[in-house]
Amino acid sequence: MFPIFLGEPVSPEMLEATLAELDVTVQLLEDRFLQNKTFLTGPHISLADLVAITELMHPVGAGCQVFEGRPRLAAWRQRVEAAVGEDLFREAHEVILKAKDSPPADPTIKQKLMPLVLAMIQ
């Protein structure tokens, strides 16, 4: 999300590596935690579900189709959204989901954040 916020391009190599890591992480979430349960910790929504869905919505906000081709994960997302309520779910993720359509950060903020962001993504 930082490159999008700062209006900086991401190298194809960095993007490929990041997407591969995301795929492994999402598969781990499905296989080890979600398994065949309704929610991550069992039959009821928990803080674990709320934290996980928030993390997964970041790449969605950047344009990654995290839930595409993953019916088990997509069904879990729908259950989380239903448990929270569609309006609250949308409100909670509104800023993240609009990030890719937002203008880059103010140049002053960008100048201050750039060294930190570059250190994180390199």
From TrEMBL:
Keyword annotations from UniProtKB, A to Z: Cytoplasm, Transferase
Documented EC number(s): 2.5.1.18
GO cellular component: cytoplasm
GO molecular function term, any single one: glutathione transferase activity
UniProt keyword Aminoacyl-tRNA synthetase present: no
GO biological process: glutathione metabolic process
Pfam families for this protein: GST_C (PF00043)
Keyword Lyase part of the UniProt annotation: no
Location of this chain's protein in the cell: Cytoplasm
Catalysed reaction equations from the record: RX + glutathione = an S-substituted glutathione + a halide anion + H(+)
Domain named GST C-terminal: residues: 1-104
Matching PROSITE patterns: GST_CTER
Sequence similarity: Belongs to the GST superfamily. Theta family.
Record's subunit section: Homodimer.
UniProt protein name: glutathione transferase
Organism: Callorhinus ursinus (Northern fur seal)
Gene behind this protein: LOC112812535
